[in-house]
């Protein structure tokens, strides 16, 4: 039986005179890879930023796994169960790959600051469990050999994998990936596709913004197409690809 993970309706956002989003809504089922596509400036990143609490919407309702949530702050959204990555990678560059994942995992721990300061047995136990789980996640995304390397020394493709591991560390209901293939070469893209497929097989749910249409069409169960802040199509990739409005939107901007 299908289970709705994310239900968003009526999202609008204006920047001064520019209507960046007009009445946008999406509906994602558990285990789906859902794509958000559209020409440059269509409103994809704005939608992601609204969804994850970076921008306050002018209107909209939000429900995650059947519970309403208000995306007022990034940490509230993380607590509700959405983890995201960014178009311009946001890792802690001077920390090791392992430490970067551990930071993500810490959002799920109980001991708190006092436990850390006094290094209580509870804290040490929890810390060991976090390190173990974080190593497993590095293995899962295929970069365990770089566990002790500083994040900034990893290749672009591996840094994106590390961001995904860090997002997974929060045990999210939904993982939102903002252009995960940006800057990747063809081989890295093949590996990324395998990784996203694996994440889906493990019954996770993914929302994806991606410019690489081939990747989107090959990976996504459903897609929504935005153009000038409006939703011009929604459906299975094969249907959407044939939609006249979508073809015109892409041709019109030279895509
Ligand atoms: N913080 C902001 N202040 C003012 N205008 C903004 C802001 N963020 C986005 N916009 C505008 O909103 C519109 C939608 O931008 P957005 O970045 O969401 O598009 P996009 O679909 O993600 O584009 P791209 O594919 O180029 O990343 C654009 O016209 C952009 O200039």
Task: Give an overview in words.
The chain has 255 residues and is α/β, with parallel strands linked by helices. It folds into two domains: 4-81 and 172-252, P-loop containing nucleotide triphosphate hydrolases (Rossmann fold), CATH 3.40.50; 97-165, no CATH class. 41% of the residues lie in helices and 24% in strands. The protein is built from ten helices and ten strands. The chain has helices at residues 44-51, 74-80, 97-106, 112-118, 121-141, 156-168, 186-201, 213-219, 237-242, 244-252, and strands spanning 4-15, 18-29, 33-37, 59-64, 67-68, 82-84, 174-178, 205-209, 222-227, 230-235. It has a six-stranded mixed sheet, sandwiched between helices. A four-stranded antiparallel sheet has the order 2-1-4-5, with helices on one face. Helix 3 packs across helix 5, helix 3 (97-106) packs parallel to helix 6 and helix 5 packs across helix 6. Residues 6-253 form the ABC transporter domain. GO terms for molecular function: ATP binding. InterPro entries: AAA+_ATPase, ABC_AA/LPS_Transport, ABC_transporter-like_ATP-bd, ABC_transporter-like_CS, BCA_ABC_TP_C, P-loop_NTPase. This is ABC transporter ATP-binding protein.
């Amino acid at each position: 039986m299908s289970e709705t993970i994310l239900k968003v309706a009526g999202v609008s956002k204006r920047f001064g005179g520019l209507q960046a989003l007009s009445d946008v809504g999406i509906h994602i089922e558990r285990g789906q890879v859902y794509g958000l596509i559209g020409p440059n400036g269509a409103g994809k990143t704005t939608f992601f930023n609204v969804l994850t609490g970076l921008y306050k919407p002018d209107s909209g309702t939000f429900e995650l796994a059947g519970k309403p949530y208000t995306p007022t702050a990034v940490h509230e959204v993380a607590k509700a169960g959405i983890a995201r990555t960014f178009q311009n990678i946001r890792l802690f560059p001077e920390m090791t790959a392992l430490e970067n994942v551990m930071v993500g995992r810490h959002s799920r721990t109980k001991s708190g600051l006092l436990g850390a300061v006094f290094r209580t047995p509870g804290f040490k136990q929890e810390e060991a469990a976090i390190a173990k789980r974080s190593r497993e996640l590095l293995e899962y995304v295929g970069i365990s050999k770089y566990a002790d390397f500083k994040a900034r020394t990893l290749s672009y493709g591996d840094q994106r994998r590390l961001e995904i591991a860090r997002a997974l560390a929060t045990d999210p209901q939904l993982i939102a990936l903002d252009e995960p293939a940006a800057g990747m070469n063809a081989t890295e893209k093949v590996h990324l596709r395998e990784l996203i497929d694996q994440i889906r097989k493990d019954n996770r749910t993914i929302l994806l913004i991606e410019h690489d249409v081939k990747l989107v069409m090959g990976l996504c169960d459903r897609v929504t197409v935005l153009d000038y802040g409006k939703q011009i199509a929604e459906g299975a990739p094969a249907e959407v690809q044939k939609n006249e409005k979508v073809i015109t939107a892409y041709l019109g901007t030279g895509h």
